[in-house]
Amino acid sequence: MKKKVYGLLTAVLSSLFVTSPVFADCPPTAILSVSNCEDGEAIYELLGIGLNVVTYGVGSAAVIGVLIAGYQYMTARDNPGQVAKAKNRILQIVIGLVIWVLIWGILQFLLPGGLFADGSKG
Predict the structure, then answer these.
(1) Residue 26 CB burial class (10 angstroms; 0-12, 13-18, ≥19)
(2) Whole-prediction pTM value?
(3) Which has the closest alpha carbon to 48: 120, 117, 122, 121?
């Protein structure tokens, strides 16, 4: 089993280093519509879309985690071990959200114009 996993991992990693990037034209039937196709900045728009999707995922996971931790806290009764586990889980979720906000802010700075740009060049 380990040989199969190592073989698959080697194949995937080697394909990442052997292939060259391919830039396609923006056909009118693209799955994701981008507005800056001719300017060569379509990749930044796609990265922005990906960042939004991941942000929604992180937010959803945090809400679900807080609900689960809240349920654990409610059902802990007088068990100090269970209460401590629930509080620790909530603390870890808050720390994770703070880290994601920092990462999101750095990525906003790195993307040209960020996601708050109006798309105009000037």
Answers:
(1) middle
(2) 0.63
(3) 117
